[in-house]
Amino acid sequence: MDMFVVQGGHALSGSLSVSGAKNACLPIMAAALAVDGCTTLHRVPQLADVRTLSSLLTKLGVNVRREAAGSLLIDPTGIRSSIADYDLVRTMRASVCVLGPLVARLGRACVSLPGGCNIGHRPIDLHLKGLAALGASVRIERGYVLAEANRLKGATVHLAGPQGTTVTGTCNILVAACFAEGTTRIEAAACEPEVVDLADYLNRCGARISGHGTPEITIEGVGQLQAAEHTVIPDRIEAATLLIAAAATGGTLQLNEVEPRHLLTVLHILQESGSRIEVSDRSISITGPQEIQPVDFVAQPYPGIPTDVQAQLTALLSRARGTSIIRDLVFPDRFMHIPELCRLGADIRREGNSAIIRGVPRLSGAPLMASDLRASAALVIAALAAEQESSIRRIYHLDRGYEQLELKLTALGGHVQRLVDSPASLPLPQPAESLPVRKSA
Ligand code: UD1
User: Fold this and answer.
1) Are 387 and 348 in contact, with CB atoms under 8 Å apart?
2) Residues labelled catalytic
3) With a 6 A CB cut-off, is 23 part of the ligand 1 pocket?
């Protein structure tokens, strides 16, 4: 297993382009299995999650081929199976995105329930409720969802649960509804840009979707879609992560090929915490602050602060001059990064779905362990801002969602090296003064 070794204390500086959005790419890849002909997707990031979904689609009989320059060809003509097995689904929850497309294309789907994960309980009851509303018979057997429908029928589908709406649930119902007879109205739909990108792709294929980007989406069923070319939107979470890294190190960064309007609330928090931000049509520049200011925020569905940048902002605010209080309404247990940040000297206490971050003047490098994708990014940011050396193990979490992050950070002057995990440990800290010798009894 690979690990990162980070030498902290170097301000990031320079410019780079953002990759295609993982969370847009995955539902579109899954949707392509329901469309006739070969979809060409451009700006597909080279990520472990994209490879996992490619393997899953290939197992179903879909032909997936990566072209030069980041494009992916997806041809479902040879699809023969409707089974997404546990071994692949458990490594990547987004595999559940094949559920709606499989029912739409084959009239049946047998998809493993994803199970638990490090950021908390993640049920898929709303996906199932939505499919049932469209007329599918849905049951759970031996850890699998079995969904069947001879013909889906348009309906009103309400997708709000106790934690708000669902992003991939909206994606599943959106695709299924394109193939339903009549009109479907999704209420409490997710408004995330990744859902909009999926709807744009489907409309390119001949779907009749309107209202995407708002909580109410209308879909007139068309029965059949014809493959099209589509370019995936820029990854707003990668962009936010790089901006926060620049802010945390007091650096300067220009991000290109980015969509600033997808990042308005994140940019606002960065400004409040002392960074200078300049925005143009497709680029964002940031100059990190001399002194980070504390900020309170709540992670919530779009257009709020994304839960997917909560951990990275926590890392930034751990060095603020004062106390910040943050809350995560989407994943109230998403705080696995806190004990690791505290190993660097941060002073953070969790209380329910909140974290109280008392800023400290300095962090000092330490061996760390990544627990999930965005927590890994938070540890990298904190390690870049810390004094001395840190190691971060279980970096495979990071590889699921960041394309060559260490190379991008190195190009910006960060000192991040990927190594094959080894038991060698970092030097132990030396006490400032020698401790009094205790006399043995
Ligand atoms: C997607 C993103 C993930 C992001 C999350 C929230 C992808 C591939 N992943 O995940 O990076 O962190 O949105 O923005 O796009 N819930 C239910 N019942 C359901 C579905 C969800 O109660 O049937 C709850 C979840 O437990 C969570 C909240 O709703 O508390 C939001 O989850 P959801 O939007 O579904 O997350 P994902 O789509 O899995």
Assistant:
1) no
2) 117
3) yes
